[in-house]
Amino acid sequence: MQSYAPVPPEAGRGRGGRWRWVVLVGVVGVVGVLVPVVWRAGGFEAVPKQPAESAGKALDLGLFRVTVRDARVGVETESFGSKKQRFLIVRMRVVNEGKETESLSQGGLADGVVALTKAGKWVKPERVEGVAGGAETSVVQPGLPVEASAMWEMGPADSPKKLTVGLRKWTYDHGFTDSTFAWRVGLEDDVLAGRLTLPVVSP
Q1: CA-CA-CA-CA dihedral for 65, 70, 74, 80, to nearest 10
Q2: Is the pLDDT at 127 greater than 90, yes or no?
Q3: pTM listed for this prediction
């Protein structure tokens, strides 16, 4: 046969068939490796936007590291005056992961802690109080743990058995129209860093 003559169809059929088998075996091998890895990592399901967490576990919220301890009913003096008021109180350990002193109330921790009402609405606490080193405090300093109490007002006949608490994520970023970087909390109700359902301890 001349070297420049066309190759008969039969001459290349065996080699092409072998390559197809090599490719097929390679694809099957890759799939066989990837499927167990993906399954162990949680499968193909989307990451939940409200991951369920349990009390006693430290949760990284970006600006704060929070460990929710428990929920209970308590009686405290109102902010103004001497009248007593019933509150749902969630106790937590808070560590400031930033570099500046942060408030426990509005503009600080309280903006990232919410409770779920019977109507399905997330609401921030009316008050957040703290104790650090045996003294009352309204702020949390970097690296200094604070025992904080987030409080929601209750009616005289309210007596819930459980309370669902949500913790929001903080990110160090600039605003849409503001180029200054600062710690900002995400306010989307369907996106939480953690969601805890706690039994409520009554006095």
Answers
A1: 10
A2: yes
A3: 0.73
